[in-house]
Specification:
By secondary structure, the protein is of the alpha/beta class. Helix content is 38%, strand content 15%. The chain contains 5 helices and 6 strands. A 4-stranded parallel sheet has the order 1-4-5-6, with helices on both faces. It has a two-stranded antiparallel ribbon with strand order 2-3. α1 (6-19) packs parallel to α3.
Length: 170
């Protein structure tokens, strides 16, 4: 799964939901059954940590009402909450789960040094959260990259391709 910016929260929420399906057999629309496709990695590109943090970073002025609207959102899209759910699933399932959902996928955190949207503390905050939960995480800060440029610059693209190859060539 690969998410960019707020899409990172969507991707991490999807990964947590995917892992919560302990039964690897699925019933498809035509009535046939099959296994889930394996989830071999989670790429978080220029991640925002949550709707709340995104609104505060986009609207830092305390007099603007937008920064206070996050409680009205039906979903807060919180990456740290998803990371906690993945770790909880891992801890609760132990070794009883086998097949494509038997492990929490490794995480690749890609971000730009000069990201003009996401506050500079967010990637470090997410990395510390993942490490504290004993989740596998790699990070890459791309020098000179802005919000949408990390995978476009040679450095970021090379690191991302290497992460994909490392986790898909088995």
């Amino acid at each position: 799964l690969w998410g960019h910016s707020l899409g990172c929260a969507v991707a991490s929420t999807a990964a947590a939901a995917y892992l919560s399906h302990r039964d690897s057999k699925q019933i498809f629309a035509d009535g046939s059954t099959g296994s889930l496709a394996p989830l071999v990695g989670l790429i978080l590109e220029a991640p925002t940590s949550s709707i709340k943090d995104m609104l505060i970073s986009l609207y830092p002025q305390k007099w603007l009402p937008y920064r206070y609207l996050w409680p009205l959102s039906w979903n807060t899209w919180d990456i740290t909450k998803s990371l906690n759910q993945m770790a909880r699933w891992r801890d609760e399932s132990g070794s009883e789960v086998t097949g494509p959902v038997s492990r929490v996928p490794p995480i690749f955190l890609l971000f730009g040094e000069k990201d003009e949207i996401i506050p500079s503390y967010v990637p470090g905050q997410l990395e510390r959260c993942a490490r504290s939960l004993d989740l596998s995480i790699e990070t890459k800060e791309v020098a000179g990259a802005m919000h949408t440029e990390a995978p476009l610059k040679r450095d970021g693209r090379k690191a991302m391709v290497q992460f994909i190859l490392n986790n898909t060539s088995r």
